[in-house]
Design goal:
Length: 116
């Protein structure tokens, strides 16, 4: 699946301006993942931004423009959401979502590394 290259560039540019973090890009989830300090932080999936955030904020951010819950195997996955294009069009809105993900990144568990 193709992903929104312009949105990826906007995320890339924003993250590049944040001092003291390590950023790696990986193709995953049929899109592009931005790994921050070795942990999945934010992704571009099609035209949407996919966010990883503190699950305790789920109800609060569900009210935000563009929010769409992440559903896996019929269940809502707490701490993850999609943000449709109308929710991250402005620089201010994109900053909100990325900052939300970055705030959780230090607390997030990193996935287990696969043995070679």
């Amino acid at each position: 699946m193709a992903f929104d290259e312009q949105l990826a560039d906007r995320v890339r540019e924003y993250l590049a301006g944040i001092p003291g973090i390590s950023i790696e890009e990986k193709k995953m989830f049929r899109g592009l993942a931005f790994m921050v300090n070795g942990k999945m932080c934010v992704n571009i999936s099609g035209d949407d931004l996919m966010c990883r955030f503190d699950p305790v904020l789920q109800e609060e951010i569900a009210e935000k423009k563009g929010f769409s819950p992440m559903i896996m195997k019929g269940n809502e996955l707490k701490g993850y959401c999609y943000v449709q294009p109308e929710g991250c069009r402005s620089a201010r809105d994109l900053k909100y979502w990325i900052d939300l993900c970055l705030a959780f990144n230090s607390k997030a568990k990193s996935s287990k590394k696969k043995k070679a």
